[in-house]
Amino acid sequence: MTIERMRELANYAAHRSAPENFSVETVDKALADGFKELCGSINLFNKNKYDIFQIIVENADTIVPQKVMAAMGQFAEIRQSANGERVLFKRGKASGRSRAKRFLTQVGLSGVYETFRLDSETFTVAMKSIGGAVSIDFQRMIDGAESLAEFMDVLAEAQEDAIYAEVQKALIAAANQMPQANHVSGNYSAADLQNIVNTVKAYGGSAVIIASPEFIAAMGPDAIVAGGTGYKGVYAPQDIEDIHNSGLIRLFRGSPVIELKQSFADETNTQKMIHPQYAYVLPTGREKVVKVVMEGQTQIWDFVNADQSVEIHTYKMIGVGIEAFNNWGVYQNTAIPADNWYNDGSLDLDVDLHIEP
Q1: Distance CA 36, CA 138 (A)
Q2: CA-CA distance, 326 to 94, in Å (whole number)?
Q3: Do the beta carbons of residue 30 and residue 149 sit within 8 Å?
Q4: In a structure prediction context, what are the per-residue pLDDT tens digits for the chain, which is 357 residues long?
Q5: What is the rounded CA–CA span in Å between residue 84 and residue 98?
Q6: How crowded is residue 27: how many other Cβ atoms within 10 Å of its Cβ?
Q7: pTM value?
Q8: Are 71 and 258 in contact (CB under 8 A)?
Q9: How far apart, in whole angstroms, are the C-alpha atoms of residue 216 and residue 209?
């Protein structure tokens, strides 16, 4: 199979589509067979690896920005840049005391998200690398038990998950700059969430709620009329329909509810990347609070181990910043278990988020 044909199949596979007279499943199989053909031995792999790496990199650098834009475009300003190119953001418009309260939260030299007062009309976000590695056993690949097509999918998914996790870290770290009126901590209450939404809307525009799937599931259908002694509550029919179709509601009293994709930090699926207790209420319709930068191509290289297995390593430069004043809020549902949240040490909630019960 030619490299150009492989590139074409990889593009179809990345977008879960297929050419005429093909299915998504046949595209996936053809791509896996193509990788197997190009990597039938260590010599073939060495001969073709740079073309293979280019296909893998092109797939990740095409599909990841599209997925991030689809998931976060409503509340995040997402930019791409060339290697070494710094993206310059302009300060959003604010006046009076709102301008004085404006701050930027981004990763500091220590790797912890830190908050800085904005004292200029433009700013950049600090960049950091996200990376990973996979070990390929050539005998298993020749036998069909492993495939570089799977690695291609895993790489794109891992980069997407890492960006979600970085956005979450920056949001939580920024929360300690807001007044207590923008925080709620305790058992879930629709009235408390609506109060935060009202605070966000008071700054103009609309509000969007982004939250872990665990938080959204705990919200349940919204009671239009609360139940009482001897009678049941009345619930929004659309909520019932959404829960039936997807398991989660999609709208809360006019504000969209967006699921922050959950993933796991370990192979046993016990350490969650996204803190399950949190929801963030962000403004829409004006400047966007979250800033995301993806810089340059994904970098990829290989290393041959003593047992002739091959490790493929990658990294990508990303940057996340939160540019805000008191125009957004956070809700912590403490009834949701959180002891299985993966805290990599870059953020200590007990220190960085001051929420009183």
Answers
A1: 10
A2: 11
A3: no
A4: 788 888 888 888 877 788 887 888 888 888 888 888 887 777 888 888 888 888 888 888 888 888 888 888 878 888 998 888 888 887 665 544 444 456 667 666 556 666 666 666 777 888 888 877 777 776 676 666 666 777 777 788 888 888 888 888 888 887 777 777 788 889 999 999 999 999 888 887 789 999 999 999 999 998 887 777 777 788 889 999 999 999 999 999 999 999 888 877 777 777 788 888 999 998 887 778 888 999 988 888 888 777 777 788 888 898 888 887 778 889 999 999 887 776 654 433 332 222 222
A5: 33
A6: 21
A7: 0.74
A8: yes
A9: 10
Residue 78 corresponds to which tokens in the numbers above?
A: 């997402």
Nearest to 167 by CA among 280, 79, 251: 280
Q: Which amino acid is at 204?
A: G
SS3 for the chain is CCHHHHHHHHHHHHCCCCCCCCCHHHHHHHHHHHHHHHCCCHHHHHHHHHHHHHHHHHHHHHHHHHHHHHHHCCCEEEEEECCCCCCCEECCCCCHHHHHCCEEEEECCCCCEEEEECCCCEECCCEEEEEEEEEECHHHHHHCCCCHHHHHHHHHHHHHHHHHHHHHHHHHHHHHHCCHHHEEEECCCHHHHHHHHHHHHCCCCEEEEEECHHHHHHHCCCEEECCECCECCEECHHHHHHHHHHCCCCEECCEEEEECCCCECCCCCCCECCCCCEEEEEEECCCCCEEEEEEEEEEEEEEECCCCCEEEEEEEEEEEEEEECCCCEEEEECCCCCCCECCCCCCCHHHHCCCCC
